[in-house]
């Protein structure tokens, strides 16, 4: 068993208790894999909105998923579990695998297939994070040094590939061609989304429609697949599959739009990554698109210099924040996110009222109101 550096693990709260049989570093890692605790709550002017209902509903099931994650990320090549373990133990909301578990419960599923599939969803997500951080040259992930910062780009890309292979092994073990079709398509579309984002980066002529296509591919599709396979394992009719697809897709769009807004509004300690990274990397996101659409000639010159030409000074991020505020870029981005959140809630209304449905609705509220 590969030991994790204690500096990465000690800060992770233990939310889902683990079996006595998981000891040492693996126990620490599995506790990190639940990753919700203090990071699962948003403080707002009204009652606190959190993922508490969802995580409490799924405590024992997430424990099973965490165990699968621990087992399947092991390798005789010591660097693989060490690097993967760094990212897994760093926490995160674990929203995607919880959506799979909750969607299956919403559909009345009583078996265990969804545990492996939730782990597969998390492996796909973790692999994309490793690859993203290399592409974006990110130094922080979830408030800790990113894997590529610690282990280098080559190792991060290759371990990401390893996790993709583990995800596909779990899909094959499920023996459902329908599940394999859904998750393999999602993996391909995510890659297409990342390439689309490369094509729109540093281009201030990017339209809102083009950008929505990017985030539909790179973010929303995995939320969509995570929810849809819950209906598949429960053998529910096509209408229920479509409803959960709509739920996941619109939730994913809302999630990404909130991420866009947070890059220009959040406190770095809460966000877990460097605030302003999107701007410094020349990424075109919704707040910027809105600001550019309403920009004066002088303002367009600023955006062309900083985004397209990547000629930035230390004061430019503050100027970008000011221009985005002037044209209500964050405000309108949040409005769009709220609209997709409303669609996500509406997609669940065809299912009977249940703890699972209520917890998923609360997860939508958390997604819209979160501060990180």
Please give a structural write-up.
α6 runs antiparallel to α7 and α11 (208-233) packs across α12 (238-262). The chain has helices at residues 6-9, 24-34, 52-57, 59-72, 79-89, 95-106, 113-136, 147-151, 153-174, 177-200, 208-233, 238-262, 268-271, 277-280, 286-293, 297-308, 316-326, 329-347, 355-369; strands at 41-42, 49-50, 140-141, 144-145. Strands 1-2 form a two-stranded antiparallel sheet. It has a two-stranded antiparallel sheet with strand order 3-4. The radius of gyration is 20 Å and the shape is globular. It is built from 19 helices and four strands. The protein has one domain: Farnesyl Diphosphate Synthase (Orthogonal Bundle), CATH 1.10.600. With 372 residues, it is mainly alpha-helical.
In short:
By secondary structure, the chain is mostly helical. It is 69% helix and 2% strand. The protein contains 19 helices and four strands.
**Main sheet makeup:** 2 strands, antiparallel
CATH architecture: Orthogonal Bundle
Strand element count: 4
Strand share of the residues?
under 5%
Overall geometry comes to: globular
| Pattern of helices and strands | HHEEHHHHHEEHHHHHHHHHHHH
Termini distance? Answer: 32 Å
Number of domains: 1
Q: What is the fold-level CATH name, i.e. the topology?
A: Farnesyl Diphosphate Synthase
Q: Number of DSSP helices? A: 19
Low-confidence stretches: 1-47
Widest sheet: strand ordering: 1-2
- Secondary-structure-based class equals mainly alpha
Mean pLDDT: 84
What is the C-alpha radius of gyration, as a whole number of Å? 20 Å
The CATH class is identified as: Mainly Alpha
Share of helical residues? 55-70%
**CATH superfamily membership:** Farnesyl Diphosphate Synthase
